[in-house]
Amino acid sequence: MGRVVLVTGISRDIGRRFARAAAGDPSIDRVIGVDVVPPRGDIGDVSFVRADIRNPVIAKVIAKEDVDTVVHMSVIATPGSAGGRGTMKELNVIGSMQLLAACQKSTTVERLVVKSTTTVYGSSPRDPAMFTEDMGPKRLPSSGYGKDVFEVEGYVRGFARRRPDVDVTMIRAANVIGPHVSSPLTNYFRLPVVPRVLGFDPRLQFLHEDDLLRVLRHAAVSGIPGTFNVAGDGLMTLSQAVRRLGRPSVALPSFAVGRLGATMRQARISDFSPEQLGFLTYGRGVDTTRMRSELGFEPRFTTAEAFADFCRELSPAGSRPTQGAGRA
Amino acid sequence: MPEEARNGTQDAVVIPIGTGGRPGRGSGSARPSSAARNLAPSAKSASKPAPKSSAKSSGKSSAKSSTKSSTKKAQPPRAEPEAAPTQQQTAETPPTTGIPVGEWLSALQGAAHEVFGDDWERRLAELMAFVRRRLEGDYEVDDYGFDRELTERFFMAALRPIAQKWFRLEVRGLENIPAEGGALVVSNHSGTVPLDGLMTMLTVHDHTGRFLRPLGADLVFRLPVVSSLARKGGATLACIEDAERMLSGGDLVGVWPEGFKGIGKPFSERYKLQRFGRGGFVSAALRTGVPIIPLSVVGAEEIYPLVGNVPSLARLLGVPYIPITPFFPWLGPLGLVPLPSKWILEFGEPIRTDSYDSAEAEDPMLVFNVTDQVRETIQHTLFDLLRERDGVFS
Q1: pLDDT along chain A (328 residues), means of 10
Q2: How far apart, in whole angstroms, are the C-alpha atoms of residue B46 and residue B297?
Q3: Closest Cα in chain A, distance from residue B284 (Å)
Q4: Mind telling me which residue stretches traverse the membrane in this protein (chain A) (predicted)?
Q5: N or C: which terminus of chain B has fewer CB atoms within 10 Å of its end residue's CB?
Q6: The complex's ipTM?
Q7: Beta partners for B8?
Q8: What are the extents of the domains in chain B?
Q9: Mutate which of B150, B222, B251 to test chain A, going by most A C-beta atoms within 10 A?
Q10: Neighbours of A23 (CB within 10 A)
């Protein structure tokens, strides 16, 4: 008798791919995908249940399907895809609260895996070089994705206290990058001319999309409780990344980059949020010792390799994009 | 067009007397030369019609313009012979311009030899490879953003002449720096601009081959340009987490516990150590069990004598102080040139901390005692060195 896994946020590409990969795992019996809209791609053996995690229906789904493992990955980073910041916040925070409430009521749930992000650490000049899991942000995020994730993590910790019998694994993933990822950061690197903050060269750390899927599956199968930073080995600086990308970049003062980001957001070219400006100014590094020692996970891609894989998709056949005119 | 121009100017240029003009000119009577003298002021008006006609065929127009100008001045005999030599001249000039390619090559070779020394070919190739790697982003940075290659090949190379020729660094007690393993170098801080930190980094690298990893205040990481240079040069934020991470990683870490109080103190208080922070560096050393190496730097106080401060402006800009020295801002950029004081760096005997266990790092009394010990050591060494030195600049 294998496990029954419930995956939230399956309409998004990464959720769908994780659900498919999990369905192929021999130790997993059934995978149920939940979202408000049906996934667009092929979901294979995954059974899709149309349910909104923001209302109590989700509890019924869990009870009916005898779900024992819940993988929560529907905390979204961009308001654009959800239709506004208000909806995004509701999806992220209220959705997570409802899901946790349902899990708390459930008698079958044994494991909870939450895909969180290193964005919770924030980015500031007072940051240590490497964040460990015990550290918090130097400044509490006041808005946006960072705040949502911070609150969701708080609720998850509360749930872990109330239900000590459930193994709660929180995966703080570094910026996920890869050929299929569409995130604020990958969209940023896809810009024809990459704007940089003048005089700052942030350190970046990437996690390859395949590694994200692997670590979530690893967490769902092994059920090791705790909070873990997950990132590829090594770091690279933004200037280095842009050079490896082979795209032209332009250095602008911080306020101009913020202005440009707001304009691009309005024009729906790229989701360039204020916390991303902070990230692109000060950068961030996370310590992944615990990922190896406790979680027992080894990423296949280093930061540089993950980025190289992303670059390959961007410039096919190794040709350098000319003047960035290719993307309109 | 060039022909035209030459033609036009030729009318004017030929004129000067006593230049030993072409044969046949000025022979006989003085008339032509006086007419030529008259030509000089009207040269401009003469050359004007030339560009207009230049749009047409060049060969014809040259003749035309010459005739035009000549008719204006009513000097048909002068203009005609003049046109011929010009043509000749233009035909002559090309072979004389330029240096043969072979000579260019040998000159370049000589220059490369001069710049790079005997094995210039290999070193030039290395330099090209370095530039290529930089442009393609094909280099590594460590967890703190330290760019070893850039630091070694660029920052250090730029600082070395300043250290050797300008400040004439004298280094003592190098044997106190361990060849490997973590250690904490604690130094006094002075000089308005943290040049002493840079010079210490260079000294440690040049004499021991190890990189000193400085811990910087958060202001350093807030300022544009400075922050990226600091990270690339191996610095990281002065916080307990980073200090312990570096020390337990076996790095040689440098701290300046006086911070801005030390570096921005008025010239009248030179060589008086300020409070040594809260002793965070000591507890980091105690917890990781690495030795503390006291470093006393003499000479850095005099590079920019701080005689004044503009606290209101400093507060507005969010920096600890706006320095006023006898030369800055009065002399503008020239005031930024540091005074060439003679520097002495003395590394003291390491203060061992491995006899304490890490629980004792939580004992504030012990931390304060060790902090005082380090501070006293540096202060006494400073006084000794000051007594010893002959003068500030010698």
Answers
A1: 86 90 89 89 87 86 91 82 78 91 92 94 91 88 85 94 94 93 88 91 94 94 94 94 91 88 79 82 93 94 94 64 37
A2: 74
A3: 14
A4: none
A5: C
A6: 0.85
A7: none
A8: 2-94, 107-136, 148-303+338-388
A9: B222
A10: 20
